[in-house]
Each structure stands twice: as C-alpha cells, then as structure tokens.
C-alpha cells in the first residue's frame, strides 16, 4: 500500500501526458461479454477443474458457456463502433506475436512464483514469510535485466535480441530447477531463480516496447492494455495447468513411494495415515513421523515439481520460437510521436 500511494503521488506530479477530448461510444456489451466469458473459463480451468475434476458437469458447463460468450465477444468486436479490443489489431504481426509471447511469459513468471514457494515451504520447511523473502533473487533478476535492456535499447535502438535471449535464459533456468532435491542448498536455488528472473526481465518490457513501436499512436493504449490482459490470462491458465500437473503427479509419486516403502519395511508405514489429510499432517508436523516416512513424502513432492518444470520448459521454448519471429522495426523518434499526437489532436472534438 505505501509503495502504491508513493507511485500514485509521483506519477501525478511528474507524468504529464497530452489530453485529447473526444466523443466516444462505449462498448458496454463487449465489456459484459469479455468479463463473463473470461470469468467462466477461468472458473472452469482454475477452480472447478482442479477441485471437482475435468469431467465434472459444473466444470464442463462453465467452460462451454465461457467459450460461447468469448466467441460471441469476438464476433461483436468486429461490429462494434468503438470495440474494447479491435480485431483489426490482430492483422498487425507484432501485436499478434507479442500477445502470444505475453501469455507465454505470464505463464512462466507465475508458474515460477507459485511453484518455488511451494518447494520452499513444503520441502524445505520454510515459513510463508521466509519463502516470500527467498524469492528476492528472482525479483533481482527481473529488475536488473529490465534496467539493463532498457538502457541498451535506448542506446542502440535494437530490441529483438533481448526477448530471444530472455526466453532462452528462462528456459535454461526452468530446466535447471528439475535438478532440485530435498538437500539442494539455497545458493544453488538462487542461481536458478536469478536465471528465470533475468529471462523475464529481458523479455517483459521489451515486448511492450516492440508493440508500442509497431501500432498507430491512437491504438497504443488499447494495444498495451491488451498485452497486459493476455499476460494475465497466461499467468492464470499457466498456474492452473501447472497446479493440475502437480496434483496428478504428486498422487502418483506418493502412491508409488509408499508402496515401495511398505514392501521394503512394512513396520515403517504401520499406523501412518496415507490419506490426503494424513500427508498434509506429515509435511506440517515432520517430527511426528519417522524420517523415512517424511523423506518419502518429500521426495514425492520434489519429483512432482520436476514434472511441472518439465511441463513449463516447452512453453518457454515456444516463447523462444515466437521471439525469433519478432520483426525488428526502427524505433520511433520524439519527432514521430509529436507528429502522431498532432494528427490525433486534429481529430479531437472541442
């Protein structure tokens, strides 16, 4: 909250953007269709699917309704006078590419942000506060490379190389996380987190620069907000998919691990509650069970997280391929923006 208030005060005092008064026709129907369509799909994917099962009637109902509303939203946006998301923007190669890339980056970013604290809290036994603080290396990677790439783009006028390198580095960092074990030291995890963060930092702001450089001045606002929207969608869908993979593989590895333990040492699992609630208790109160039981449960969590990271890697590889397809256009100058503002002002009313 204090940082938000400070940011609001600074931007209000320093950021002065030319205002152009226009007559508008607000796309209320498009807004309603977008909100309800996306909400229904997200509820199906992020809540009811993992909770009730992907074949559950409620999951399927929400998913079908959401897809129908989303399809009608696309149809309506092609007819609306001032659409929330103009479909013509998708004819712009850079807009389409950066929208896809934003979704991939969002999935990778939030996948790491969600899964790393799980590893730290469940496997390493850290508190929620400690796990949050141990994400600092990830944030350092994001901030430092964002600053670096911004300065280099300002100096050279070239931007394509940064999302290419960024997605490649992010892929390496995610693949390295498949080597995590119960005994991995924090300094080693920090290196992996820095790599993922560095990849995100090189990619996130750069694709926004590429997007803003490729669209008309009057479309810059809606194009930028759309990119943020697609990144948010990617983060939600990515987190839901990774969570589903984690739960599925965790159940598999827990069953296999404790079956193997029971075969080797039946007395070790005698009286141990192997239900979901029992496993949760084992992790929450490690001193209440034998070390071999605890290690079996933790190994199952680690192995399940490995599959999650293996699942995330192809997604970031897709991001690398998309980044390679990005077209590098000459950066606009201040004169170009001034001319665009004057052109837009010529269409103003009052």
Break the fold down into its secondary structure elements and pairings.
Layout: H1 2-14, H2 28-52, H3 57-77, H4 93-123, H5 128-133, H6 136-156, H7 161-176, H8 186-214, H9 220-264, H10 266-269, H11 276-284, H12 291-324, H13 334-345
Helix pairs in contact: 2-3, 2-9, 4-8, 4-9, 4-12, 6-8, 7-8, 7-12, 9-12
Main location: membrane
Membrane topology: Multi-pass membrane protein
Subcellular location: Membrane
Task: Briefly characterize the structure.
It is built from 13 helices and no strands.
Describe this structure in words.
With 350 residues, the chain is mainly α. The chain folds into two domains: 24-85; 87-345, MFS general substrate transporter like domains (Growth Hormone, Chain: A), CATH 1.20.1250. Helices cover 76% and strands 0% of the residues. It contains 13 helices and no strands. α2 packs parallel to α9, α7 (161-176) runs antiparallel to α12 and α9 (220-264) packs antiparallel against α12. The model has no long low-confidence stretch (mean pLDDT 84).
């Amino acid at each position: 909250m204090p940082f938000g208030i400070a940011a609001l005060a600074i931007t209000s005092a320093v950021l002065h953007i030319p205002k152009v008064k226009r007559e508008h026709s607000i796309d209320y129907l498009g807004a309603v269709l977008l909100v309800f369509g996306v909400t229904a799909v997200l509820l199906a994917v992020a809540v009811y699917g993992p909770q009730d099962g992907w074949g559950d009637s409620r999951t399927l109902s929400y998913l079908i309704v959401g897809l129908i509303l989303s399809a009608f939203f696309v149809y309506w946006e092609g007819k609306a006078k001032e659409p929330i998301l103009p479909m013509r923007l998708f004819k712009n190669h850079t807009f389409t590419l950066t929208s896809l890339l934003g979704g991939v980056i969002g999935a990778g970013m939030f996948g790491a942000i969600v899964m790393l604290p799980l590893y730290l809290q469940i496997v390493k036994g850290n508190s929620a506060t400690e796990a949050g603080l141990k994400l600092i290396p990830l944030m350092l990677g994001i901030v430092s490379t964002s600053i670096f790439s911004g300065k280099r783009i300002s100096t050279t006028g070239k931007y394509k190389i940064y999302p290419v390198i960024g997605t490649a580095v992010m892929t390496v960092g995610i693949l390295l996380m498949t080597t995590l074990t119960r005994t991995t030291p924090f300094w080693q995890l920090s290196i992996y987190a820095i790599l993922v963060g560095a990849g995100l930092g090189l990619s996130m702001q750069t694709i926004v620069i590429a997007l803003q450089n490729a669209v008309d001045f009057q479309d810059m606002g809606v194009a930028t907000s759309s990119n943020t929207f697609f990144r948010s969608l990617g983060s939600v869908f990515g987190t839901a998919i990774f969570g589903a993979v984690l739960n599925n593989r965790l159940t598999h590895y827990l069953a296999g691990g404790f079956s193997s333990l029971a075969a080797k040492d039946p007395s070790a699992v005698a009286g141990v509650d192997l239900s979901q609630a029992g496993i949760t208790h084992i992790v929450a109160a490690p001193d209440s069970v034998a070390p071999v039981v605890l290690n079996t449960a933790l190994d199952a969590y680690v192995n399940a997280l490995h599959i999650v990271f293996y699942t995330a890697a192809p997604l970031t590889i897709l991001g690398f391929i998309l980044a390679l397809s990005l077209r590098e256009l000459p950066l606009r100058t201040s004169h170009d923006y001034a001319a665009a503002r004057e052109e837009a002002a010529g269409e103003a009313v009052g």
